[in-house]
Amino acid sequence: MGLIDSHTHLDFPDFDADRTQLLARSRASGVEQMVVLGVYQHNWQRLWDLVQTDTQLYAAFGLHPVYLNEHRPEHVLELGQWLSRLAGHPQLCAVGEIGLDYFLPELDREGQQQLFEAQLQLAADFQLPALLHVRRSHAQVIATLKRFRLQRGGIIHAFAGSREEAREYLKLGFKLGLGGAATWPQALRLRKVIVDLPLDAIVLETDSPDMAPAMYPNQRNSPEHLPDICQALAEVMGISPERLAETSTANARELFGW
Ligand SMILES: [Zn+2]
């Protein structure tokens, strides 16, 4: 069962002590490819160095809205330079993690919007998919995406919206990233929504080290947990884990052009 972790922060220091072993264990459990996402300017080089050690790791570069106050205007320019320097490299796969976070009140919405749009423009210019963080901001993200109409779409990571929001994203060419959140029995609303999602909309992810699934509570999350996450989500959806693995992998391959 070949799985793709479409969202991990494997470059984070949380993995420094055992990254090599963890990668080996993940591969042994069937997790073949992983997308490592940049969140601020000072992790891009580290992230790129990491993916260069393994041909099945892929890089996305972006300025995450949660770190809004650390970003500087020149970082957007630098992002453009990174994308231009690596254009066409098989391990550059997307712009991300970018988006809008309306959950944290200290993040200026206007500032987030400007940053988000500047990076969507880069995704459009470099014909890359966009990997999005969307928290309490679906209406605004959907409205923004309708103006940009990205040719290659992208992924709404850790999707936890409604049926209607899912439909809007699908019309815009986006896939929905599912991971640990829906493995929790308490996530009643989300579990109801995912039962009805079309299978061709779904990609799997861990968001590791965050978003621990129900079977590994209060632990560092890891790509090696993806098979268990797949199993739990398949159960919620009433399909076999093999079917979910196969379809979600095909969906991610199609999106990234692998
Ligand atoms: Zn993330």
TrEMBL record:
Gene3D superfamilies: Metal-dependent hydrolases
One of the record's GO molecular function terms: hydrolase activity
EC number(s) stated in the UniProt entry for this protein: 3.1.-.-
The keyword Metal-binding appears for this protein: yes
A Pfam family it matches: TatD_DNase
InterPro entries (UniProt xref): DNase_TatD-rel_CS (IPR018228), Metal_Hydrolase (IPR032466), TatD-like (IPR001130), TatD/YcfH-like (IPR015991)
Organism encoding this protein: Pseudomonas kulmbachensis
Protein name (record): TatD family hydrolase
Upper taxonomic lineage: Bacteria, Pseudomonadati, Pseudomonadota, Gammaproteobacteria, Pseudomonadales
PANTHER family (alphabetical): D-AMINOACYL-TRNA DEACYLASE, HYDROLASE
CDD domains noted in UniProt: TatD_DNAse
EC class (word): hydrolase
Keywords for this protein: Hydrolase, Metal-binding
